[in-house]
Amino acid sequence: MQTFRIDCCLRPKSILDKGIRRTELHYFCDGSQSGYGACCYLRSFTDSGVVRGSLLMGKARVTPVKVLTIPRVELQAAVLASETHAFLKCNIDIEIDQVYFWTDSTIVLGYIKNDITRYKVFVANRVQQIRNHSSCNDWHHVSTAENPADVASRGCTLRELISSSWVHGPK
After folding, report:
1. Which ranges of 2-120 would DSSP assign to H, the alpha helix?
2. Using CA atoms, how far apart are residues 8 and 19, in angstroms rounded to an integer?
3. CB within 8 A of 78, min separation 6: which ones?
4. Residue pLDDT, tens place only, 34-56
5. Verdict on whether the full-model pTM lies above 0.85
């Protein structure tokens, strides 16, 4: 545990000195039988071409005792990502140029982007929560191998956490 470090400074002087050209927020979410989670990364681009990613916030929840299908757990993770965005919008004092939401569930993407089909109450309520805090166009697919929220949903050992993409996000 003594070797595990997370940078507390989102924008170190070395990045600020190079002039920040663009700032993005990237939210990743994932769900499994044991849990679901979401994480957010601040990505800064400098005028000189340096790109820096920093873990801004992460949340994990245990899957409810009541048995839910994996698509519903993945939908809960998407709700958690959108709620995290609503929280961060109000609480960070950084101008954000673009926001991206990433999930490895094509079913969840279908729920969010489909405005023709009427869903049952559970799905409809959660899709509405997601749409209240994010735009349908901001949601994208990411492969499971590249999804850092996979760590939050499945759990891992400290050694696996250190070697994962959790701290800086995927490439």
Report:
1. 13-16, 70-91, 106-113
2. 20
3. 29, 38, 101, 103, 105, 108, 112, 126, 130, 139
4. 999 999 999 888 887 778 788 89
5. yes
